[in-house]
Amino acid sequence: MTAVQKVAIAGAGVAGLATAIFLAKAGVEVDLYDAQPALTTRGSGITLQGNALRVFDELGVWDEVAAAGKAFEGLNLRAPGPGAPVVAALPDLKTGGPDYPSTMGMSRPDLARILLAEAERSGARVHFGTRVTGVSQTDDTVAVEVDGQPAGTFDLLVGADGLHSAVREMIGIQVSPEQTGMGIWRTFVSLPPDVDRSELYYGGPMYIAGYTPTGDDTMYAFLVEAAQDRSHVSPDEARRIMVEQSRAYDGPWNHIRADIEAGADANYTWFTRHLVEAPWNRGRAVVIGDAAHSCPPTIAQGAAQGLEDAAVLSELLVTRDAVDQALWDAFHERRVARAKAIVDASVQLGQWQLDGVRDADMGGLMFGVAQLTAARA
């Protein structure tokens, strides 16, 4: 018998959809509510490491993910300036184990589409255009209000509703994301013929310039700068800024600039960080994924950590017979310190660059994170 028979989930991102799949496949009645009117069809790319790919296999979607994305091994470091020479080719640790590639890039909308389809096939009811607006609890149940109206009584509410989580606020967790001082331009472009893995450029006018293949003919590219208010920049001006800021970078960046000039979108966001200290639950409501922790994408573990949250929480809910303190203690023991290590390391990589630290052991830090994530959550 599972610890829950009926669960509500707020948020149709990676963590929310993964939780819905795991629970619905175990026979749990799942209702997922998302404020967006429909699954987004816009977005750039995402980098997924082996520990994320392992969870996709557990969800039953690995074959679809593998077909939709671009798997590769290793990471190249290039120098800015003429020719953009490769100065280091770094191996990747297979954090998911030998059965999976070390890294994969793919389109965010493609990943969302795959997870949504699997959630619905598994029996989860997904309600777009609906927002969780109220929560009230007893010792054994949680009553959920959606769009100001009662939506039902559940055994558990999972808040997987992102950085600015409404569930987090409603259950009284007073933590919110803070800026780290960096901002990132992103664009989704065609794949240059000489790119077959992620490549990063350190130096030049940007803190980081890089790109990741997301398919046989697509990739996403990004530039990291000191955070600025870009909220009023028009789409044409955003393209112009990204083109101008990338001119110090040669090689494949010439191809990227041509695509941006031809109309590829340029989008801007700030890096943030936050971590909800244990406990992540308040009674019969719990936050996971970006609602519980966020970090800059400097180590590319954001989605992976949300997937691990979903996997661990679901495992405990379907293998135990009560939602009790022992369950929450086990959940927090397996997730909080690991998430904190990822947040701290991701922020540290960015802070070294903000501070101009030239002898920082970036490779050592990233290798330590890889060793951590290679162990199962």
UniProtKB/TrEMBL annotation:
Xref: PANTHER family: MONOOXYGENASE, PUTATIVE (AFU_ORTHOLOGUE AFUA_6G14510)-RELATED
Protein name: 2-polyprenyl-6-methoxyphenol hydroxylase
GO molecular function per UniProt: FAD binding; monooxygenase activity
Residue ranges of domain FAD-binding in the record: 6-346
Keyword Chloroplast: no
One family name in Pfam for this protein: FAD_binding_3
InterPro entries in UniProt: FAD-bd, FAD-dep_Monooxygenase_BioMet, FAD/NAD-bd_sf
Domain of life according to the entry: Bacteria
The entry's keywords: Monooxygenase, Oxidoreductase
